[in-house]
């Protein structure tokens, strides 16, 4: 998949006074602007203590540079129009220097990092590029900047094992058009972002910011030109998997947004995630060769989803379930949820872990909210329903690893449901 959203914005650096409406490196004062890399918090206002500096800076946008005398300032971020501070840090503004306060969201909080916009220009015919991994959810990442036709198998990473909330050093790269791919650290098969037609113009100085997505595994991106434009590039892909939960071992097939998920998955089975183009859900899904109606839905950029197929009374149903594969915020916890895919069961299902509720009264063809629980070994997982006197699922020797994400799928026939515990992340 190829997209070219950065081409127009990347032809050349625009002088700071023209692009941003302020900020001078020659008058003795410093300057600060806000770049908003957080879609979760909407438009942001930037304050110095109680003085408003920039208002309503939209996600993937930049405010104008504001002149400040050299010194230390308490820079506060608030949702546009709100009186509540969501991020506050003390920052030192240097004389005759421009700065960027970069706001981003990760681990369910709004965070910020202060950039000094004084990197020297590269040699003629080259550009400079560095990467900031702003997503604790994504983990350590490798970044490949290659020709469009280059294969990952034959390519070496431009940036290797970039940890969370860390910057790479600047790389000087020959000016030209490139394909940028991001993978999990050390795993070329774990593709997190793939965008093409990225123009690294002569003398360009850029920072590629990798940000958290709804699913938590893939990443979105934002390109910041030093003292110039900011361009957001959403991931062109989403991830989706097929789960066959029909009764009588029914066989399910599906093709979504041009990508085959399976030509025949026999129930009860949980399929693997596949990358598909983000956007409106389209394609086909069948149960034993009979076409089912796809839900009307949109696969958001960077999202993870489950396409669940169940059956009841001889009819099949396809349901799209949003998956949250972000690790638990507390490092000693795992995340666990329940998916009720026993279509013919006329009652809800409850899940407990070591006798504590994880999911209560989860309806058919739906998922519970993921619960963060203390990881451990020899844990007791039990799924029950009010209409049965015995457990639908019981396992007293379960291991849940800290930092991992799990789903217990209850699938298949109402008289003999099958429990499938899957590690999603």
What does this structure look like?
Helix content is about 0%, strand content about 55%. By secondary structure, it is mostly beta strands. Strands 10, 13, 14, 17, 18 and 19 form a six-stranded mixed sheet that branches. The model is unreliable at about 1-25 (pLDDT under 50).
Mean pLDDT: 94
Question: What's the number of extended β-strand segments?
Answer: 39
Task: Give me the CATH fold name of the largest domain.
Answer: Immunoglobulin-like
Query: How much of the polypeptide forms β-strand, as a percent range?
Result: over 45%
User: Which parts are unreliable, with pLDDT below 50 for 5 consecutive residues or more?
Assistant: 1-26
CATH class of the largest domain: Mainly Beta
Number of helices: 1
Shape: elongated
**How would a crystallographer describe the biggest sheet?**
6 strands, mixed
Under the CATH scheme, the architecture of the largest domain is: Sandwich
How many angstroms does the end-to-end distance come to?
25 Å
Alpha-beta content class? mainly beta
Q: What is the helix fraction of residues, given as a range?
A: under 10%
Number of domains: 4
Radius of gyration: 25 Å
